[in-house]
Amino acid sequence: IWRTTVLSLSFTPAILTLPVLLFTDNQSLMNQYWWNMLKNTIRDSGPCVIKFAQWLATRPDIVSMNCAIHLQEFQTNAYDHGFQASIRIIKKTFGNDVFTELDVPEESLKVVGNGCVAQVLVGNTNKQKLIAIKVIHPGIRDSITADIRILQYATWFVETYIPGVHNWSLVESVNEFESLMMSQLDMVEEGKSLEF
Questions:
Q1: What is the pLDDT of residues 73-119, one digit of tens each?
Q2: Rounded to an integer, what distance in angstroms lies between the CA atom of residue 64 and that of residue 112?
Q3: Per-residue pLDDT at 96
Q4: Interacting residues of 142 by C-beta distance below 8 A, sequence separation 6+
Q5: Are 46 and 7 in contact (CB under 8 A)?
Q6: Contact assessment for residue 131 and residue 123, using Cβ atoms and an 8 Å cutoff
Q7: What is the value of pTM for the model shown?
Q8: Which of 12, 89, 128, 171 is the most exposed place for a label (fewest CB within 10 A)?
Q9: Which of 52, 47, 36 is nearest to 114 (CA)?
Q10: Distance between alpha carbon 140 and the CA centroid of its chain, in Å?
């Protein structure tokens, strides 16, 4: 209930000012302000909401093409939990000597990507072999679980009480989204995709 309340309050300004889109030109300052407000709200709402926005950006059959274009920003500009947080998580998970054991000087590591689920660092071993480390964002498992439950309830409510929406197959789309999110938490599979 707390997460639902927080998300509801976060999105309230965007929802209340939604008529701006109906009465302004796509190029107007008010229209651009509204989209910036929505994107900042999405970014502040956490990785799962950002991932949902990324996914919606690929679904112009569900949202307008204009909306999909605005949401494409999240394909390359996602959540960042910070480099030092990644180093702390790696050391907490694998021990303080992890970089010595991997033969990777800590100072050789750098962030090369920030997705909705994880941050990717790369570095070189002392033998100049490239290594990649993917670190799941802190708290994302709980966030995904809570947010998926909210989405499932919201889509059920919309399909039940809004005529004509049932044809959009929103429940099936949320189930597809849940599978995608859960698969990205499987670091064994993710590790295979990082092989160079």
A1: 888 777 778 899 999 999 999 999 999 999 999 999 999 888 888 88
A2: 31
A3: 94
A4: none
A5: no
A6: yes
A7: 0.71
A8: 128
A9: 47
A10: 10
Please report, in angstroms and rounded to a whole number, the separation of the first and last CA atoms in the chain. 43
Per-residue three-class SS string for the chain: CHHHHHHHHHHHHHHHCCHHHHHCCCCCHHHHHHHHHHHHHHHHCCHHHHHHHHHHHCCCCCCCHHHHHHHHHHHCCCCCCCHHHHHHHHHHHHCCCHHHHCCCCHHHCEEEEECCCEEEEEEECCCCCEEEEEEECCCHHHHHHHHHHHHHHHHHHHHHHCCCHHHHCHHHHHHHHHHHHHHHCCHHHHHHHCCC
What is the pLDDT at residue 194?
Answer: 56
Tokens of 120: 């990717």
The pLDDT score that the predictor gives to residue 195 is 59
Residues of the chain with confidence (pLDDT) below 50:
none
Model confidence pLDDT, tens digit, residues 92-102: 999 999 999 99
Cα–chain center distance at 36: 17
pLDDT at 187: 83
Q: Are 117 and 51 in contact (CB under 8 A)?
A: yes
> Considering only CA atoms, which of 64, 65, 67 is closest in space to residue 53?
67
